[in-house]
Amino acid sequence: MNALQKISDFFMTPAMKLIMIVAALLFPFVAGNEYQIYVMALAFVWAIAVYGMNIITGLCGQLNLAHGGFFAIGAYTLAILTVDHGWPFWWAFVAAGVSGALLGFLAGVVSLRLKEHYFAIFTLCVGFIIYLLIDKWEELTHGALGIINIPAPSGFGLVDFTETTPFYYLALVFMVLSIWLAARIANSLLGRSFRAIRISDELAASLGINLMRNKVLAFVLSTTYASVAGALYAGMVRFIGPAEADVVHTFDMITFLLVGGIGTLMGPLFGTLAITWLTQSLQFLEEYRMIVFGPLLVVLVIFFPRGVVGTFLTWRGRRLAAVQETAKKESASEKKPQPNKAVTPRNQEAGNHA
């Protein structure tokens, strides 16, 4: 076993997962300034939404271009209920998740009757409708002015979520829960049903899988993730506007997913963190940063079509298969009986003379 194989095995062990959690817990103590903690917390919030997209796109194979719109629905639900109606933050937070699930169900029942690019185009229209409603329905959403003074999550004891570091840990907790739930879904019978649908609708139907029910369930799970992330985002930035529903956010999340690895467990997290920090590191280039960022992204997609994590897992699977095949051949050669020397009359006569 070479060094690269040992590294790949190490990254899949529970010890590595524990190290990652400890590193996340210690990050505020080693960060250079409070802004870096803020950026990391924001990346955690976006990662939650990307995990939702991974369910509908990575597992189920349906490209939902309205994902950013449902992110905005969660943000606006929380903002409207807390600012205009005086709801406590956590009750409004639950309502934001429920609203994302209900509206996702309604949109999914209609849109999932379509397939492939027709479904993607339809959801793109749904996302644009959400944007128009937020921008033009001034009595409800405050229109282009947006909503300000959104309350932060209610703290407890000495914990004050209006401060950056406590909110960082809150976002970390929600992200870890999101990853845990995504892993449970992916490894369950439901996750296998989603993957069968991604491979082929006809294959899934032949296995007795209810296509519409599973597609709608995947859509609802993804929009719930997006709405929860949107609500956390609203409580973090304390101001939202119609731009939160812009389709640009959807394409940002698709980029995070492509870079990390579609359909993988750690791909959404890796892609979100990598692109977020790469973008931050290129801030000094101002409007010219895309000259560097664009070609880097193109090269990454060309040479890592499955994303960084997806390519790594593919390589690891091939490597393990080769090692197992070699071990099987060696075991077969050891068990193969050795040919005995045949006894001929000449040999027998020579033995007698001896």
From TrEMBL:
Q: Which superkingdom?
A: Bacteria
The name under which this protein is listed is ABC transporter permease
Q: Give the chief site where it resides.
A: membrane
- Is Membrane included in the keywords of this UniProt record? yes
**Membrane protein topology class:** Multi-pass membrane protein
Q: Annotated region Disordered: where?
A: 326-354
Polar residues composition bias: residue spans: 345-354
Q: Where is the composition biased (Basic and acidic residues)?
A: 326-337
UniProt keyword list? Cell membrane, Membrane, Transmembrane, Transmembrane helix
Where it sits in the cell: the answer is:
Cell inner membrane
Please give the Pfam families that the UniProt record associates with this protein. BPD_transp_2
Q: Transmembrane residues, as ranges?
A: 12-31, 37-56, 89-110, 117-134, 167-186, 216-241, 253-278, 290-309
